[in-house]
Structures are given as C-alpha cells and as structure tokens.
Amino acid sequence: MTTDIRAESRPRSEGHTPDMSDTATGRTSGGLLHGLPWLVWRRHRAALTGGIIVTVLASAFFVYEHFAVVDLVQQYGSQPGERASTKFGNDFGRIFRVGAGLLTFLPAIIGLFLGAPLIAGEQEHGTIRLVTTQSVSRARWIVTTLALPLGVVTLCTTALSLSYWWMWVPARSLAFTGDWLNGGPFDITGPMLPAKSLFFAVCGIALGMLLKRLLTSMVATVVFMAAFSIVWDRVPAHLAALRHAFAPLEHEVLIASDAINMDSWVATADGTFYGIGTCLESTEGATDACRAKMGITQSVTDYFGFDQMVGMQWRGSAILFALTALILGFVAWRAHRRPL
Amino acid sequence: MSDQSPWAIEADGLGKKYRRGWALQDCSFRLPAGRICALVGPNGAGKSTFLSTATRLVQPSAGSLRLFGVPVSDPAVLQRIAFLAQDKPLYPRFTVAETLRMGRELNPGWDQALAERIVKSGNIPFTAKVGTLSGGQRTRVAFALAFGKRPDLLMLDEPMADLDPLARHEMAGLLMAEAAEHGTTVLMSSHMLSEMEDMCDFLLVLSEGRLRMGGATDELVPAHSLVTGVAAGNGLPDELSRHHTVVESRVTGRQFTALVRPGGPLSDSWDVQVPGLEEVLLAYLRSPQAPTLITDEARFDTPVAGRAA
User: Fold this and answer.
1) Where does the record place the ABC transporter domain (chain B) (predicted)?
2) B interface mutation test: which of A8, A9, A48, A129 has the most B CBs within 10 A?
C-alpha cells in the first residue's frame, strides 16, 4: 500500500480558486454517485436514464391497464366466448400485442445498444487507456463497468416483466387466444425477461470486447442474437413434462382455457399412443373396423397447464443465467488479465 | 519505504512477446528520479510497448519493472504515474469540467486547483464539450488531467506528434514548467529526437525491441568523437578499429568518416570533431551491430555479472 505523503500538504479540491463557479466544475452535481460509479453512469447517462424513464412510464401504464382489465373480466368473465373475446379484442388487443412486441425486442435492444458498445466503445476511442491508468485497479474498473449497467437492466426489466404479468394474468385466457407459450407472455414475464436481457447484454459486451470495434461488434451481436433466438425457440417446450388429457373417441378432449394444446393422439385402452391419422379410412365402417382391430378407444391431448408456466420460466431462466454467469466470468477474467 | 527510491524506473531484463515475436527484449536500465527523459527509436522499436508495460496496460512476458521501487504488478503504482497516450483519448461527450471531475473522482491525490489553472491558462471554457475542442485545446485538457493527478512519473507517448508548431511550443513550455515546479520525472517517447532535444537531460534509445543507448545526454555525447582521416586501402585504418569502438563508419574515396567511442587518445593525423546528439543517435540506429552504450548512471546493476555492455 503506497500512501502519498505529499497529499497532506497539497492544495486539494477545496482550495480551488474562488472565481470558479461550482457548477462549472461540476462539483455539486452528480450527488449520489462518486468515483467509478459516477464515471460509468456519466458515460452511459443517456441510455440509462432513457431506459429508466421508459420503464417507469411503461410499468405505470401496465399497472393502470391492469385495473381496466379486471373491470372487463368482472363484467364479461375471463373465459373465451364471443362477448368477452370481442370486447377484450376491441379494448385491449392492441395494447397487449404492442406491449408484448416491444418487450419481446427489448433484450435485443439492450444487447445491441448497451451491451455491444460497453467496452468496444472504450476500446475504439482509446479511452480504455485513459480510464485504466487512473488510480483505480483494473479489477475495480471492470466490476463497476459491468455491475452498474447490468444492475439497471435487471431492475428495469424486472419492473416491466412484473407489471406486464399483472396486467396479463387476469385476462390470460382471452389475450393471444390463450396461448401464453407462443403468443409472447412466456418470454416477457417472470424471470424470463431479465434473464434474456442480461444474457444478450453480456453477449454484446463479450463480442464487443473481442472485436474491439463498435460497428463490427454491433453487427456481430445482432447476428448472434438472431441465431440464438432461432435455437432458443425450441427450448421452452422441453422445460416441463407434458400432461395428457383423455376422452372417448369422437368426444372432444377438454383442457382448461389457459392450458396450451401441444399435440393430439389416439390411444388404446392400455395406453399405447398412435398418430392422430391412424385408421382414418375412406369409409366410416373401415375406420371403425381398423380401430376395433387395433384396440384404439380414446383420444389424447398433450398440454401444458398454466400452473406449469412459472416453473418452466424459472428453468429456462436458470439456463440463461448460467450462460450469463459464464460469459461474465470470461469477460472479467479477460479484462483483468489481458491487454484491452 | 518506496518513496525514498532514487530511481523512477528500474527495468531488469524486461521483455514483451506478442504472437508475432518479441516487441521488447532484454531491456535493463534505470532512470533516476527527477529527470526529463526522451525515449527515442524508429517506429516499431518497442517504445509504445515499453510505455504500455510501465502503465500496466500490458503485462511483461519476461523480467521485472519497478517504478519508485514498487513492482509494476502492484496496482498501487497507478497512483504515482500518469500516462498520456498518443491520441490523447478523452470522452468526447464530457464537458471540460466533467473531464476534470473524472480525474478528481478516480485519483485520491487529485489537485483540482492545478488542473483548473492549466485549463484556464489556455482560455478553454469549462462548459465546452471535449469533442468540440481543437487539437491543441484537447491536448491541454489531457495535460491538465495528467498533471492534476500529481504524478511522480509522467509518461507521454509521442506527445507532440499531432500538434501544429505553435501548440507544440506551448505544450513543451507547459510540460517543462509543471515538471520543474513539482519535480516530476518525465518519460516521453518520440521517433524524432529534434523535437525533444532541448527538453531532455536523459536519453533512452530503442531499436528493434532492444535498448541501444541509455544515459544522461551530457554524458552520452562527449563519449563520442566524429573522426575524419585518410583511409587505409579500402577500409578504416587498423589503429582506429583496434583501439576504439567504431559505431559507424563510411569510406568515400581515400577518406573515411567514423563515429567512435574513443578508447584512448586519438591520433593527431585525424580530424576530430564533437558530434551532435542527433548524429550520435542516428549512427546507433543505422548500425544494429554497434555495441550498446549504457552509462553507469543508467545501468541496472544486477548480481549477474556481465549484463549490459
């Protein structure tokens, strides 16, 4: 530890010339934040304040709409039917769709405009050599540079996710024709929105750090996010065990209006499943004969119940959080050990 | 305690290897505190690599480096050094005042009055965005940031390279005045000796990643003589190469010219002149096979005998 003996006798900041106004030096502004957090905040001030303002407005709007949705459900019921569905579609259809659309793209926006430039911007402009040669260790610099923006991302996306969830849940059977898995709600509520946002953000950060150029890393981040989304689309359906609902042949299999119909089968009494087209012959007689021969007696529907949704979201988020932690570790290690 | 170390820089066998090869190799010297030192060499000689290792931007692959007795691997050295990179990076969207605030927020020994004085003497408004400043003004703000840190060792990478002659003169004056007032050790790199010859009292010459020459300028130059005389046949007189160290020589017709480090009295039959600093420097850069010259003051004494020539 090297303490500077001269520091005691030095004219410190208090001793500045009186004709300098404090506002001109920025001494009184900034308030809460000091040291590295102030610098990181100042660098990303526009993006972070913009994000916080949008979050507050959007969350307030979702909360406000929640009460309107509850009113509608009390008046028309929460089950899909002609009156309730039409009324809901007219009053809220657009709000739900636009809200879901924006939140679906939010992780990509964060990855592109906050993640990719976070370190690549400093590398491209050379300011990384300015900031890492001040009196703060590189370890502290990388921790603050990562923690502050990612902390804000976590807070904002959590607020948006919770408020959208609160608006959507009362009308979950009406909105998106009850399809929470593919319609949007699965990806933008609960832990999924923060998880995906953080994951895309750190992917952008890591790509930026490796590529060192702002534009290149933004393009690479977009390509990566698009490719990842295509792969990730297949994942949610594997995050829980499918449930089966049975009914006699020729009867409709009944599942809850907020359950997701995944597949349909026909089955024998002892539980052997066959494809839905099995024994569909040209005449009814032939069909019946075939079914009798094979012992097919019931229809089956595979589905996910609404009560499975939160568990599936946490399992999906756990995968994303684990990947995020791995990439963060790599970024911190590399920033600490290697020249930037 | 490390504050008593009389050496601003002590390099012992310092080396840095990149994938393409050694950028800096077996570099051993020491720089006494309080000197204004020029780090000179052609492009790609390893100047920036050395400055990067001394500012903790890259980790050396070999050897050791101490600044004021503190190993460079210890983050505590950051408080004692300031670094001005070649392109003087600053955040373009920050105002001048915010740039100085950054210095204050990140450095415990920050001297706001000094930094403000440097900015004000250039008539730069504190509310101006850094991105709108001229090259000379930006350099002045970067200087203010570097000096406001109150470093014991200030390192500058090609500080004058992109400045017009007027700004160059102004910055040189500012640098010398502030360094003299605070007793700051200054190490600045350049591929042009002429622009720092008047400022520096210490010289380190790098070429192809190796240290070729090091020492106080008033010791280095008198150690050399520029000798002109009659050539022996097609080459140098035997006597010259036998008794003196020839750094560089040229034979034109029946006449030779040689830059030598005299090992004793030179023959009266030759015309002997005192070379300029630049002549000595160029001779070393042109002759990779010439023996390295490190003065006693600059030599890093290691227990291993027979290091620097």
Assistant:
1) 9-233
2) A129
